[in-house]
Amino acid sequence: MKERVAVLGAGNGGCAMAAYVASRGACVSLCDLFPQYIADIRKKQGVTLTLEGKTIFQKLDCVTENPAEAIRDAGLILVVTPAFSHKLFAAACASALKDGQIVVLNPGRTGGATEFLHVVRSLGCQKDIVVAETQTLIYSCRKTDGAAVEIYGIKKEVEVGSLPGSRIQEVLDALHRYYPQFTPAKSCLKTSLSNIGALFHPTPVLMNAARIEQDKKDFRYYWEGITPAVATLIHEIDQERVAVAAAYDTQIKTAEQWLQESYDTYGSCLYELIQNNKAYRDIMAPHTLQVRYVTEDVPMSLVPISELGRIAGVPTANMDAVIALTSTIYGQDFRKEGRSLSNMGLNGLSHEQIIRYFETGEAF
Question: Which of 32, 201, 238, 320 is catalytic?
């Protein structure tokens, strides 16, 4: 009997995952809360997938706007949405979740699994579920029309952490049927604090705000937007992130280490590693400040790292400055709206209790 898998989110990554998992023999349900994203897929009852030069049509078992319908009888639930949608899907799924289901956020950004579990528990769901998060999306992919997607590349290795951390093998067993590339992280603290987007997204947009607003000519986001001065600030924010991780007994890669291991680049500092990375050559800057590099990565990445640092007594002055300045510019209280300790269900816990929570999934 085919396994049932639910994919929540019909954007680039969601369509790629739904089609790929279906191609591996699963019965797949695809759900999105916004009907315009699934209109064409619903008409065709499937997604056309292009991978490694081959194009095939993958029929889906169900295409729906109702998360409860999508996750019915699904052992594995793959959430592939922007981080600010995680709590919406958690609330929509809470009453329909069943014992034994595994929810994986692709990716969780920072604190995604914690926020998801907090929302479902606060709505009265006490089912025996495991919530997990990946460090990044496994694919490089884009939708080519309303019901077609192309996968340009699949990462060789991606870490995944579970909540509680002790149940990671259950998550790997479920994922490895389709994705042997996933490797275990000690806990969701590791995946959450390994969030590189928190470094490379908000700060360059902030430091290039005037240029983005006034200069309508394209400029290279990394090669021109990250000057030596901007790279210095990113490096200092990275040092704060690494210090927060160390305070929670978690070792993570620095931005420099990540660049060296992820790309064919070289250099003695962050600026040189970015400038010598040919993969960044044609990535252009956004044409507006209304971009997820800030609206998602500040509240869902920088805020939770800063909050964890505060409880552990680790100063995050540069990170806090970016949060404060972007909140002022965008007219939003990103700290209040984002993944604060309260919104993650960690308010009132001590440093030691937070570590224990990520290990066991139990509040105190």
Answer: 201
